[in-house]
User: Fold these one by one.
Assistant:
Number 1:
Amino acid sequence: MTHPNHPLQLIWGLTLWAIWFVAVYGGLSVACAATDWQRESPLSLNNALLLLATVATVLLLLWLMKRCWRARHPAAGHRRFIAVVSAALYAASALATIAVAVPIMLLPPCV
Amino acid sequence: MTQQSLSFPAKFHQQLEKVWGNLSGWGSLAAVNHTSIGARFMVTGMFFFLVGGLLAMLIRTQLALPQQEILNAEVYNQVFTMHGTVMMFLFAIPVLEGLAMYVVPKMLGARDLVFPRISALGYYCYLFGGLIILSSLVMGIAPAGGWFMYTPLSDATFSPDKGPDFWLIGITFVEISAISAGVELVVSILRTRAPGMTLDKMPIFCWYILAMALMIVFGFPPLILASILLELERAAGWVFFAVDGGGDPLLWQHLFWLFGHPEVYILFLPAAGIVSTLIPVFAGRPLVGYRWVVFAIIVMGFISFGLWVHHMFTVGIPQLAQAFFSIASMLVAIPTAIQIFAWIATLWTGKVTFSLPMLWITGFLIIFVCGGLTGVMLALVPFNWQIHDTHFVVAHMHYVLVGGMFFPLIAGLYYWLPHYSGRMPSHLLGRWAFWLTFVGFNVTFLLMHLTGLLGMPRRIYTYEAGLGWDWLNLLSSVGGFIMSIGIAMLIIDIALHFRFGRPAQHNPWGADTLEWATGTPPGSYNFASIPSVSSRHPLWDNPDLPATIAAGEHHLATIEHGRRETLGTDPINGKIRDITHVPSNSWIPLQTAIVIAMVCLCLLNKIYWGALAAAIVAFIMLFRWSWHNGAHPVAAPVRDDDPVNPPLHSRTFDGPGLWGMVVTLLSNGTLFLSLLFGWFYLWTVAPNWQIPDHKAFSISGLLISGVSLTLAAWVYLNTLKRLRQKNDQHLERRLWISTALGLFHIALLIFIFAAAELQPRAMAHDAILCVMMLYLLLHSGMVVIATLLQALRVRKGYVSRTLPYEPMVLQPLWLYCLSIYWISLAVFLLLPQMRGLS
């Protein structure tokens, strides 16, 4: 399951993206309900925490991408197929995470 | 292949037909074969499509001119609600599932799906559920709140009639069918591919169907939960969505669109699968960018779950949250574009034959790209606010759904029609049907963009003259009728071709995939022998494959044992792991579906004791069904000549049932997570949410009950560990101990529940706790009864160290019950008591 040629690599990247997405969206909602940050600018503790989660997720995804990409060469057939497609999926997950996270730097959290 | 079958191939095929064929006459209702069930799904789906189409014609007739009174407001509301409901739930999903059921096993090189009786149950649930929903229209009491059934419009205060009840109960019934098909397809694709068919050699259509099936597994449970909660609110007065008691109507929208947006991709993916299958055939070359397309399918399957809030941009959510969903909505265009570029590149580099199916594919490409572009426009929040709830959205939705689903579906029907009937359709009628439908569609819906931009709202039954909408609506209606004529010609063409169509030559389109290696029309067993596969294009590589398959020159060319068998292969490397024996004709699916329909009818008529009695009977029938499995004499009795290499799946630790259980629990777990989401959502967002001062349940009692459940699970898991070591000493006694501990846990749980002073009609907090408790009791009850049956089966000799399969299937259920119990205790009961959170 953790081997870079295992088929589950095809879903781990976007699963991590989904967990990050739910955590950030859910965390934002809970934080806004529990605090009085409605008037704050984007430079708030709330946004900083969201960004921290984003950076950690992106770094993890990029490391996993590199791992799969390196595993493509000795492999052949379906093992190589899985390594290459998984690497692309990890890259896509990292890009999706960054893209969705961009507004965190631009918008206040609870308005 | 045996010497006897080599010498007498005709006799061999007769024997196969005898084992795999349906019963005759009324006995065909007991059929479970995937070819029959898939075709029934499609025919029934097309019937519902005609009903939905007639309703659309009524809508367009009413809106053709201003201030018309052909339909009054109440009837119009019923008509547009039923149009959406019928098209989405009773036509689009079932017909695509039916197509997948028909085609996928043949493409994989399998003789059937792995759980054919579940397919049959799914079909009857769909049929009866659909008829229940439709009956409300016939009786004039159909739901009238829109196909999304928003609260509070659909609650008992604002919709006191039975319309929403028909919708909620009927749709839930139909969704049982969808999820069962989803589980079936996932396990079949992973476990019954032809030997050598590794993931990189799998037909691209099967990748699409795998993604669709998994999306159904994860996407439908939120709506099932929402429907159950709303029905409980309407029927029993429990509070979930009413603001006064601490509920929130927006919870319904979240749960509905958690299902509703992935639903769009659940419809698009199989349709895109048809496109990716047909384009290479008619371009005469392999699909360009197979790996990129697989990549795009997986990305789309995931990202489409992160878009649901774009249906709720106007309800009032923080800007930052809107931005998340806006960007995610735009991101999903990227995998779509990858596929479109792959299709264009395949056409560009191939030599295209514009046969009838290809014509419909061309229509798809034009219409779907337009729908996709307006989708990106709608993802932009300010634009979305401006045109929300206008006819622009109606136009966009139809461009995406009709363009993205209906056109490829018809292309697929034309493509596989000769496979099913052995005859070719009429090119003349087919081309007329296409052009009328294509022109009619665009006249209807292209203009609707303008009507929407000019401010015409959705869901209004009439409008004033002189607002600038008159001529647009009239032309839209004319276009709608042109489209209807096109579809009528399509139906005539298909109906006539069965009698007058030119006999089809074998593999008439020159396809590359294995379904064309069966007979046309196919035998009930698909393949007399199952070939090994070494590329993505087995028929292009070896055109003689159909002949050698029919001659029994490949795997599993034996039938003397009288079992229905197909090959079970490894999901990763495609090597043969076991011989999967699949169940044969049975009345149990029909009987069970009838009893479940009785539960629904009793609920609709508020005969609750009848519903309870029917539910108990349904459970008894389901357990009886499980009894006739594995090594039971009617399934695959233990014989001296049982194959050992590869073995029958019921003699292994890892058959398809285990995979089916895991996939089902993934779906079930999504429902549980949706309940947790509802709990946290109401807790953090609902304006009148309250946590009562008193403790809802005895925590110490729940701890004791939980310890008992844990011990029961531990005994069970320990028993399995010994079984894996080929040790079945005291097997029956251990299963009885596990059952007894489980029964004690259930009894204690019932006592605690009965002793609690909950007020589900007054407080959403207590209502959710009641649902949680019922959920735990249901699951504990199921696993304990199933374990009890295992103990009895040990006594009967159906389970032992040489027959260890069935207890393995229950293992994930035990772990699931254990998990949900302790998570529930922590999240629903202990967390609110922690300091500062209440």
Number 2:
Amino acid sequence: MSKALGVLFAGWLVLISQASVAAIDTYEFKDNATRERFQELSAELRCPKCQNQNIADSNSPIAEDLRDELYRMLDSGADNDEIIDFMVMRYGEFVLYRPRVSSQTYLLWYAPAGLLVIGVAVIFALTRRKKSVGKQQEKSGLSPQEQQRLDALLKQDQDKDA
Amino acid sequence: MRRFLVLLPLFIFIGLALFLWRGIGQDTTSIPSPLLGKAVPEFSLTSLYDENQIMSASDLTGPALINVWATWCPTCKQEHAQLNRIARDEGVTIYGINYKDDRAKAKVWLDKYLDPYAKNVFDPNGRLGLDLGVYGAPETYLIDADGIIRYKHIGEVNEKVWQKLKAQMQALEADS
């Protein structure tokens, strides 16, 4: 059983590694740095047609075109910002798996941190209130005479019990 | 203050629920185009019928529809009759962009299924398509009298979609 699973897993590994290599090895890069940038950018750019894939993994024609365009731009010396701008101008922020920080994406970027802060604040407030309630009980707010009477009464009670 | 704190989780929940609820049923396959409100990108391509005739963005004068189509695209076949009807019966100018296609095949297609297009741009490498943000044919753009892109529809132009486009066109005419 586990052997069969192992074979399946190995086969799957071969399949996915071939799929991701297939997209890259048709291009010839002038150096390794460019190749790395190509891989990085094609993993960061989302395919507009097949929305759950990046353009590196997708076989759709538009992903192919965008890879060609990416290669062409890298080859002509464009920097990453120029390439991202080029893509966003045509396909919108949507093509970025990590959208840029703008008034439209503030919620996306900051809401998780904001919710965390609110959560921590609520927990903090709750524990502090509990503590202060405990302290208030400690200090019953009785005058020394009242306290004396109370102690005496309690003692009486204890004597009765005994 | 205390009452507010007690109700805070409820408010956050309601806010989140509304936000997520809005997302349900939203068509995520059509991406809003960043080109809305911008001019048709510059290009220099040949006419589909005449490979010696160079066309540019200034050839596409609005108000008109720009329809991106190809013979390899099944949905383009589906909408073709509707485009013919719009051009013939309602006198709407439709420009065609023959997208990543074969010139000979495209000509045969127009011969066979009739040609609704006032002009047809031949875009064999999809270069103009890329500049327009096309990611799947058919796509239809609405341009106003100044050649500014006002609306983009992705997918088939059927009667329902056409009514929507028509309303937009009439609104544009009323504006100008």
